[in-house]
Amino acid sequence: MTVKTDIWVFAYGSLMWRPGFDYLESRKVILEGYHRDLCILSHVFRGTPQVPGLVLGLNPGGTCLGVAFRVAGTQVAAVMDYLYEREMVHEVYEPKWVKAMDETGDVLETYTFVSIADHPQYAGHFELDTKVDHVLKGVGQMGRSLEYLENTCRHIRALGIVDEGLESILRAAQAKEMQKID
């Protein structure tokens, strides 16, 4: 199937700096009605089923600064297949079309992945200490959950985005990690 129309993909986590697909342009955008959260138990990439780590999800409420990528119509089918394979390993997200606004006020219809709150791997309701424990203990195929969080915060800061929720989890995890060393 060849799509003739370009689409936009909304990225709020590692997809922002490592999309893994070709795109025509990118724009910094704001998504109203959702926020970025460390809310998905990772059983593969940043943890195991026995000792899960945490990765990002998109939850209802608030706002989320992210990046929108414009994908050429001729590449849409391949990019959608790639995104599904990358994001839907355990089907903890719902693929969804949402509206995001760029810095000039243009509204873009974007494709993204929203957390499923009643999925067994959903951890959005966890208290800070529980999230910190998962971040510190989780190690999976792609490395430690703590490295994922540090890398995420570093990259989004470089994009001029500050996410106080993630930063507070990172500060608490780093402090607890330092206590183990002392």
UniProtKB/TrEMBL annotation:
Record CDD domains: GGCT_like
EC number: 4.3.2.7
UniProt enzyme class: lyase
Matching Pfam families: ChaC
Gene Ontology molecular function: glutathione specific gamma-glutamylcyclotransferase activity
GO cellular component labels: cytoplasm
GO biological process: glutathione catabolic process
InterPro entries in the cross-refs: ChaC, GGCT-like, GGCT-like_sf
Swiss-Prot/TrEMBL keywords: Lyase
Official protein name in the record: glutathione-specific gamma-glutamylcyclotransferase
